[in-house]
Specification:
Blueprint (H helix, E strand, L loop, with lengths): L2 E6 L2 H9 L8 E4 L6 E4 L1 H5 L12 H6 L3 E4 L2 H16 L5 E5 L2 E5 L8 H16 L3 E6 L2 H13 L6 E3 L3 H9 L11 H9 L5 H5 L3 H19 L17 E11 L2 H22 L1 E12 L10 E12 L2 H15 L6 E9 L2 E2 L16 H14 L38
Parallel strand pairs: 2-4, 7-8
Antiparallel strand pairs: 1-6, 1-7, 2-3, 5-6, 9-12, 10-11, 10-12, 10-13
Helix pairs in contact: 4-5, 11-12
The protein binds a DNA duplex through helix 8, helix 10 and strand 9.
DNA sequence: TCTGGGGTCCTAGGACCC
DNA sequence: TCTGGGGTCCTAGGACCC
């Protein structure tokens, strides 16, 4: 097998730049929902030492001093740009796995290792020209080595955005130059554990005996080590699998105390969650509602709770899901707390077409036609045009989004204008 | 003052079955 | 003191990913 990993560079920041060339060459930050944390940085912002995930208030001074361009996250834009990139990639191979919003694995088996780098350069140039998004490409005999090559392609400018790892000597060098915590699949905990055992580089790790790896890091770790050695254990998953769970949750801009506000927030989350299920053709067998106070505010009384309601029969119907979520919030809401976050989780998902009929549950009168009309109206006139009443009980819970760019590619009212 | 959101898989232990 | 053997299913928690 020959795997290529295509990775969009600084994806969200790059998306903002496509429509705003004035920020090319300037440091750019994209913030999490609620404008709380930094979740994407242009290279210039990384060079200023701004770390992934830091709270914005900790870097305010740097932002002001360097006139950094700051954006709230705009998922409508990023999701659409991602689709465009993936569409271009699909022209280069019939066999690919969309791994995340900004990454895809391509199967390039059938190429010789000699001309494969040239092909990758073609891919890179085409994506750049057609979408405006810069990408790096790593190539190797396993997914993990392709990932590793991708890091090199990104870090070493001389590579021209493409790196391949087939030659055993090259592999050895690359593994030796990679810190364990930079390996795909090694997180903070295992990184610390390995260093405590004197294992510092990917090369060190690849040299550990199997039983030791198995006992310290389970079967997942064992697979990873074999992949580092060049033995492919992770297949390309070309067919996206059905989701097993689906969640919608938000932090609130200000603490929420009133029951109506919380009900309205949770009803909105449930409404959105049921929409997502319908888009995916799934139904849920249960919904979990949770809420909690702000854990950072140790000066305030803390409370967190969750409850799960069975949906019988399994459903993706808006009113049914919202109804259950309202029962849930009724169960766990307590007065006297300032809530920071709430959400719903849809669980026990299955295909809507093969729904199990219930023996005991009463007949429902949930109209799928009504939901089809609901979705059609929102598709045509914009999401939120028609809503369930329960979502409008209170309105004091919206998240902060002060710097959102226009939805240039998905909303007629927000098209880019040329003056 | 201000701290995101959405996923997956594995493991260990408990409850239960015959 | 000593207390079978072999399963399945569920759950909570851990670890990781982007």
């Amino acid at each position: 097998m020959i795997f290529a990993l295509v990775d969009c560079n600084n994806f969200y920041a790059s998306c903002e730049r496509v429509f705003n060339p004035g920020i090319v060459g300037r440091p750019v930050l994209v913030l999490s929902n609620n404008d709380g944390c930094v979740i994407a940085r242009s290279q210039e912002a990384k060079d200023l030492g701004i770390k992934m995930g830091v709270p914005v208030f900790e870097v305010r001074a740097i932002i002001a001093r360097h006139k950094i361009a700051v954006y709230s996250s705009n998922y409508a834009l990023y999701g659409d740009m991602s689709n465009r990139v993936m569409k271009v990639l699909f022209r280069f191979t019939p066999s690919m796995e969309v791994y995340s919003i900004d990454e895809a694995f391509l199967d390039l088996s059938g190429f010789t290792t000699r001309d494969i780098s040239q092909y990758a350069r073609d891919i890179r140039r085409t994506v750049g020209r057609w979408t405006g998004i810069p990408v790096s490409i790593g190539i190797g005999p396993t997914k993990t080595l392709a990932k590793l090559a991708g890091n090199a392609a990104k870090k070493i400018p001389a590579m021209g955005g493409v790196a391949a790892l087939f030659d055993p000597d090259h592999q050895r060098d690359a593994l030796g130059a990679t810190e364990v915590e930079d390996i795909w699949g090694i997180g903070r905990r295992h990184g610390r554990m390995l260093k405590a055992h004197g294992i510092h580089t990917a090369l060190d790790l690849a040299g550990q005996p199997d039983p030791w790896v198995r006992s310290k890091m389970g079967v997942v770790g064992l697979r990873l080590v074999h992949e580092l050695r060049g033995e492919s254990c992770l297949d390309l998953e070309t067919q996206p699998k059905d989701k097993k769970s689906c969640r919608v949750s938000r932090s609130f801009a200000k603490g929420v105390t009133r029951r109506e506000d919380l009900q309205s927030a949770v009803a909105s989350f449930a409404e959105r969650a049921s929409e997502k299920l319908r888009e995916a053709g799934l139904v849920a067998g249960a919904v979990t509602v949770f809420l909690h106070t702000n854990g950072f505010r140790t000066d305030q009384p803390q409370y967190r709770n969750a409850t799960t309601l069975v949906l019988d029969p399994a459903t993706n119907h808006g009113s049914a899901v919202i109804g259950a979520a309202m029962d849930g919030i009724e169960k766990i809401y307590r007065t006297g707390f300032s809530y920071k976050k709430a959400g719903v989780m849809m669980e026990g998902l299955s295909r809507a077409s093969g729904t199990q009929l219930s023996l005991l549950a009463p007949k429902t009168h949930q109209s799928t036609d009504a939901m089809k009309a609901f979705d059609a109206i929102n598709r045509r006139f914009g999401s939120g045009t028609i809503r369930h009443g329960a979502t409008m009980l209170g309105n004091n819970w919206r998240m902060a989004q002060q710097h959102r760019s226009p939805r240039y590619t998905t909303c007629w009212e927000e098209l880019a204008t040329v003056r």
